[in-house]
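Long-time lurker. I teach an intro course on protein structure, and each term I like to show students one example going from raw sequence to a predicted 3D structure in token notation. This year I'd like something fresh instead of my usual example. Would anyone be willing to generate the tokens for the chain below so I can use it in lecture? Attribution to the forum is fine with me.
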Amino acid sequence: MGYAAAAAPGPFQTLLLERSVRLGVRRALPLSLVPLVSDPTVVVTCLFALSSVPPLLLRLLGGAGGLLLGWMGISALRALAGAAPAAEGAETAATPARAGGFWRAALVNLLNPNAWIFWSLAGGPMLADAARGPAGEVVTFLSGFYLALTVTNAALVAAFGVLGGLGPRVRAGLTTLSGAAFLGLGAVQLWRAVMGA
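-- Reply from a regular --
Happy to contribute to a lecture. Here you go:
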């Protein structure tokens, strides 16, 4: 899930890749840690809102999260085929031009609607479910998620910084993997919501 979140196109990913191409690996690499600074506000807010929700509503939110992840997978694959709406690309491309530095990148990520939607519909219900189990489950979930997210962000920075921009085949492969990961995660989330797991 952390890999899929890092690989999915969005305002923060566009900013990350643009900075790595323009500034180089050494100067852009700290930006891969931005979610560790900006996401706690999003996660805590979403968890606080979800803490008083009955289990049935959490299942419904989990199902909605599965649909969201599936939609994100389909959108990634449509973008690969050149069928993504132009307005979405224009919005994500415009954001990085105005942003710069670690704190501006954190602001871009904090204001990124994708993070709020993800933690409200997919990550939040999963984390709330983990909180009902042994205490270590929450730590394991968050550690695994942010380790995968940070490592993938750093790998993207390194790849773009060294190559000065990835070729179309690599970009297509990354988009395909991201789309497939979202579709798989969406299917699992829907299954858990339907079966009450």
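Some talking points for your students: The longest helix spans residues 135-163. The chain has ten helices and no strands.
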